[in-house]
Amino acid sequence: MNAQWPKGTALKHFAEIDSTNEEARRLASAGERGPVWIAADRQTAGRGRRGRVWESPTGNLAATLLIVPDKPPAQCAQLSFVAAIAAADAVARFAPQAQIKVKWPNDVLANGRKIAGILLESASGGGDPYFLAIGVGVNLAHFPPDTEFPAISLAALGATVPNASDALAQLASGFAKWYDVWSAQGFAPIRDAWLARAAGLGSRIRARLSQEETSGVFESIDQTGALMLREISGKTRSISAGEVFF
Q: 202: how many CB neighbours lie within 10 A of its CB?
């Protein structure tokens, strides 16, 4: 099950760090071009989307890829879908009996519970106009018990729990494969691969937006990655940012 580390990709490992995404930002400011994965056994200030705390105990995977994408910044949000597919595939390798799905916009579910999350942040510095920090956290040995959307870990699934370095190798290999697809062919094959793994597709969901909540049928994602929601009125609404609940 050992994955081959992507050629040309560096690795920086820390026993403890504030945040792998913060280290990516520091490296970018110092002129690092990447690609480089930054991994930590433990984060003291890990964060998720919208400023939430991301629990990072020893035994889980906490890693960030610092990369200079080869497409315009407007397209780089699509890499959250690339990362989600890679994370889902990695989890599925270690938990083949579980139902692994991706949840819009950038989570991975195992048997309906969150097992991985992704955080994209842009960074600039070192004379280059645009860097991307792609943070990925995977619950290998532990999961937080009191979360609004229920969580789970590989251990709780009864799967064989890999060490974080083996899990990262699987993730990095998968990301490199799907990144090459995205780079050569654009978002269309990524969209198809993501939809093939999508949780809640075709069912009624609730979407929490910045100023309101709405509900309807999750029909698809569009060519930008926005969620297409058919509301009660029958109108299909494009949602580019929000939280989804089933």
A: 10
